[in-house]
Amino acid sequence: VALVGTTISPYLFFWQAEEEVEDVKERPKAKPLLRAPEQAAPEFHRIRMDTYIGMAFSNLVALFIIITTAATLNANGITEIQTSAQAAEALRPIAGPFAFFVFALGIIGTGLLALPVLAGSSAYALGETFGWHVGLSRKAGRAKAFYAAIAVATLVGVALNFGAIDPIKALFWSAVINGVVAVPVMVFMMHLSSHRAAMGDFQLPLGLKTVGWLATASMAAAAIGLFATW
């Protein structure tokens, strides 16, 4: 469940959808596809290539993480990582005395990349729920609640660093929660994307619909298995 939770995370649905909406608003000639179906082909091509490239890089990074930890930590009998220092040890054969420095750079870079997405997607979800003005393209004065939510989410994330929470366990359990919560979100998404009243001529084709429901069923089975064997 944790593995699939890191791959199909609910917050990504909100982030991706809202960024597509903002992209339409920011480009003068762009319009919602239901109103301008002639724009569908180039837009779908852009989204498809963005997805392919993003998935390729993310899986490549994951593969190298697995190979590196297997060849270093696991080869030396270390099968459980409890601290960031232990994780950094995986880089020692390559980076030597600079292992912790390289690991720290990676953590900082990951944080700078993930923080806007995590905090932003939370703010988007809250904003859409309560009807706030949302969007990173808006000035702070025109979306006060939205930016306040981002600030609060960021501060909560910073505060967690000063608590007694084990970061490794926090990463694991947050991935588990993501894997469980993703199931109803995916069910709703599959229903919506197959609904003609909402999608018009852009309903999912049979192939994607089949793959989508199979992925949803797999996620649900993993979540059910988790609770059944708790």
Tell me the radius of gyration: 20 Å
Quick one: overall form?
globular
- Given helix and strand content, the structural type is mainly alpha
Stretches where pLDDT is under 50 for at least 5 consecutive residues are none
Q: List the domain count as a whole number.
A: 2
Strand-and-helix sequence, N→C? HHHHHHHHHH
Major beta-sheet overview: none
How many β-strands, per DSSP? Answer: 0
Mean pLDDT: 84
Estimate the helix proportion, in percent: over 70%
State the distance separating the first and last CA atoms.
12 Å
Strand content: under 5%
Describe what is shown at a glance.
With 230 residues, the protein is an all-alpha fold. The protein has helices spanning 2-7, 10-26, 40-72, 84-88, 92-95, 99-130, 144-160, 167-193, 196-199, 206-228. The chain is globular and about 60 Å long.
